[in-house]
Amino acid sequence: MSLVLDSAAQDLLFREARTANAFTDEPVTDEQVRAIYDLVKYGPTSMNQSPLRVTLVRSPEARERLVRHMSEGNRPKTAAAPLVAILSADNEFHEELPHLFPHFPQAKDAVFAERPVRESSAALNAALQAAYFIIGVRAAGLAAGPMTGLDFEGVRKEFLDGDHTPLMVVNIGRPGPDAWFARGPRLEFEQVVTTV
Fold it and tell me: Does the reported pTM lie above 0.90?
């Protein structure tokens, strides 16, 4: 059975997609970021909770503050990327549920009244949305460099608040020279899928 998505799109989104480590200096515009969001916002989450929040780091001052919290090997990449996004989970996402999940507006209090429940659900669903975001960057013809080598608590204190949990930093732009490592191996179907 073949996939419905054409082969070129499959290549763009998956087969040729890699984590970018170097970028050109071509800017990433607000219009491009809006187009990415306007596509990926439709990706499903549990109860449509949509807890992902995106903080765009554009100014040189903010970039310098962020770079301090990156692992040493990630600092040059983050310093040089045309745009950097901090992806975080909003642990107060439930406040939007009456709007986002209108057929069960009581979910805000009936399901998510307790903070630990919200944090767990926000982490899972925002991570799912982060994957959509990375695919959206690729759909825009840009390259993404997602990274988790950072001081999460430092990033939270520097850029977020107690209601937001950072998930990753994503460098975004057009790939520069030698942007990719060699393609790493993947597990085969039989190694991953079990039928019971």
Answer: yes
